[in-house]
């Protein structure tokens, strides 16, 4: 099988003046493996290659990468699905976030925005003797929302986030915001909406849709953002 050229983004801030690109060939048999397998293999050849990973099965969200121009999780992306005619696999860090080293980005602002939406249940009523119950119908409303693994593939693909990462919450945070707005056990809907009501937090979304196109879990942040906008606009009238 024809070998595959892997083009890696490299940057070690203590050694390199600027980022550079490294081409490495790997055996063609990697076609049926995952992108993360390629990185693990390359790390055995060059231990300085730096990337994040943990679960290797699409659960922890730590190996979000830009692979041949698309954000995805390295561990669940098959090499052959990404290879074009050029037989080239280009692996870069997630865009729109400062690079710490090689494929590792600084996600401080991403998690700051996540914190802003108060990603926990708020309920002021007296604590019940057992758990807070929810009907199956209300529970079903959280499907498609709770599965987000915070990999940042959506947010880092969003031009509105690139320009305003301090002020725009971004698709991942807003998907989670909607998850709590939808939760029948949460009693802070009005307060949550009030915190989102400004020109940037939600309304900076321009409906571009990269978030939904790139979510490795098949979620739809753009739809959730649309629903929050509708709730906010209803509040205003
Ligand atoms: Fe955990 Fe890929 S290593 S999601």
UniProtKB/TrEMBL annotation:
UniProt xrefs under Gene3D superfamilies: 3.10.20.30, Alpha-helical ferredoxin (1.10.1060.10)
Keyword Iron in record: yes
InterPro entries xrefs: 2Fe-2S_ferredoxin-like_sf, 4Fe4S_Fe-S-bd, 4Fe4S_Fe_S_CS, Beta-grasp_dom_sf, Helical_ferredxn, SDH/FRD_Iron-Sulfur, Succ_DH/fum_Rdtase_Fe-S, Succ_DH/fum_Rdtase_N
Residues covered by the 4Fe-4S ferredoxin-type domain: 138-168
SUPFAM superfamilies given in the database record: 2Fe-2S ferredoxin-like, alpha-helical ferredoxin
EC class name: oxidoreductase
CC cofactor: [4Fe-4S] cluster; [2Fe-2S] cluster; [3Fe-4S] cluster
Assigned EC number: 1.3.5.1
PROSITE patterns named in the record: 4FE4S_FER_1, 4FE4S_FER_2
Keywords noted in UniProt: 2Fe-2S, 3Fe-4S, 4Fe-4S, Iron, Iron-sulfur, Metal-binding, Oxidoreductase, Tricarboxylic acid cycle
Family annotation (PANTHER family): SUCCINATE DEHYDROGENASE [UBIQUINONE] IRON-SULFUR SUBUNIT, MITOCHONDRIAL, SUCCINATE DEHYDROGENASE IRON-SULFUR PROTEIN
Similarity-based family: Belongs to the succinate dehydrogenase/fumarate reductase iron-sulfur protein family.
Protein name: succinate dehydrogenase
Annotated organism of origin: Marinobacter zhanjiangensis
Organism phylogeny: Bacteria, Pseudomonadati, Pseudomonadota, Gammaproteobacteria, Pseudomonadales
């Amino acid at each position: 099988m024809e070998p595959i050229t892997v083009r890696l983004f490299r940057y070690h801030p203590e050694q390199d003046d600027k980022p550079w690109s490294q081409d490495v060939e790997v055996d063609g048999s990697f076609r049926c493996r995952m992108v993360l397998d390629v990185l693990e293999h390359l790390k055995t050849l060059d231990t300085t290659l730096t990337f994040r990973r943990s679960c290797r099965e699409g659960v922890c969200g730590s190996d979000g990468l830009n692979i041949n121009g698309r954000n995805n999780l390295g561990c669940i992306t098959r090499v052959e699905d990404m290879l074009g005619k050029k037989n080239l696999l280009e692996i870069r860090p997630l865009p729109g976030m400062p690079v710490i080293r090689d494929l590792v980005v600084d996600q401080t602002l991403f998690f700051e925005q996540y914190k802003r939406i108060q990603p926990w249940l708020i309920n002021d009523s007296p604590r019940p003797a057992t758990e807070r119950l929810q009907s199956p119908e209300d529970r079903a409303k959280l499907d498609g929302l709770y599965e987000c693994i915070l990999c940042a593939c959506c947010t880092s693909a969003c031009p509105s986030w690139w320009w305003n990462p301090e002020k725009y919450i971004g698709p991942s945070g807003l998907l989670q915001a909607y998850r709590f707005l939808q939760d029948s056990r949460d009693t802070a809907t009005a307060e949550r909406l009030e915190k989102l009501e400004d020109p940037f937090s939600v309304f900076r979304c321009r409906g571009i849709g990269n978030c939904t196109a790139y979510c490795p879990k098949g979620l739809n942040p753009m739809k959730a953002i649309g629903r929050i906008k509708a709730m906010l606009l209803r509040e205003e009238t």
